[in-house]
Amino acid sequence: MGERLGIGIVGCGVIGRVHALQLQRLGTARVAAFADCVGERAEAFAAEFGGKAYASYEEMLLDSEVEAVSVCTPSGMHGEMAVAAARAGKPVIVEKPMDVKLDVADRMIAACREQGVILGGIFQHRFDYATRRVKEKLAQGSFGRLVLVNGSVHWYRSDQYYASGDWRGTWAMDGGGVLMNQAIHTMDLVRYFGGPVVDVTARTANLTHPQIETEDTVAAMLRYECGAMGTFTATSSAYPGLDTRVEIIGENGTCIIENNKIVYEHYRDGEVAGTHGLDPKFSNQWKPEMETESAGMSHRVYGNAHYDQLADFVEAVRTGREPLVTGRDSRDALELVLAVYRSQETGAAVLLPLDS
């Protein structure tokens, strides 16, 4: 392994560009190669970012300069590509969702374990300041017993968006609609904060995008193992596009995250003893200056949060430790999404864990 880890990116679309841009900024890694079934795309990316271009993923895996792989293809292709990387002895990081089927996700985990290579899954918002702050407060017990952990993703996607790729909005390659493709990040966060979910009751619908196979609207109720409850709503039909929101509400504290930033925070253990009629908006609430460019967590706009996660993956490969977001973490998020879909299919509450 050289001074900079050589990474091959498969899939030269929007998210492949995000990975290339962030890896280019890392002093510990470099893009060694690109692969895409449309060879011209790989050649264009290689000309822009450096590295070799391959029209065949299998050929890229034979390149000794490719020491690890980043999978940025349509979701339904993730599993076979991750397994192939593992068999080639290459650590692999896979964009969300890790695949569209739970049994395939299990095969990915098993293949990487058998070959002794690292498997990471992209959930970059776990690296946001807001997420780390909430996890710290949870560990400190500042929330007390959790009561509600809610999530909402009210976005807008046009007909042109779905027409931009023949895989978008298909069950085979996208694995679902707004929940699987867009809202899975927030679904991951509510589980990350609330812990394992024991059952899901949900309904999904396609209300404004008849040209796609999958849902554009979701409403679900979650019951967590810790006893908390929660709601989760998502849509790609909220014109012109609204906020992403996570609410963590406990007996002793509340935190609200909007668009990956804390907008409200208050805990009983931060109150001054003996005060009465306390207005929580002016006590120990989070303040904007807390979220500064420190500790490597300054990357807030879309795509840039990948920087921290890719840096963590590279360090994990170089040191042999597990990445902060493992293949199992990615599987858990996928399982929760699939539980929502199963509840829609059966019209009943669905217990977790699911059979894969």
Describe this structure in words.
By secondary structure, this protein is an alpha/beta fold. The chain has 11 helices and 14 strands. The strands form 2 sheets. The protein has an 8-stranded mixed beta sheet. It starts with a strand and ends in a 5-residue tail after the last strand. Residues 274-285 and 292-302 have low confidence and may be disordered.
Give a brief rundown of this model.
With 356 residues, this protein is α/β, with parallel strands linked by helices. Helix content is 33%, strand content 23%.
N- and C-termini, Cα separation: 36 Å
Let me know the number of strands.
14
Shape: globular
Q: How is the main sheet built?
A: 8 strands, mixed
The residue fraction in helices comes out at 25-40%
Number of helices: 11
* Beta-strand content bin: 15-25%
Characteristics of this structure?
globular, 356 residues, alpha/beta
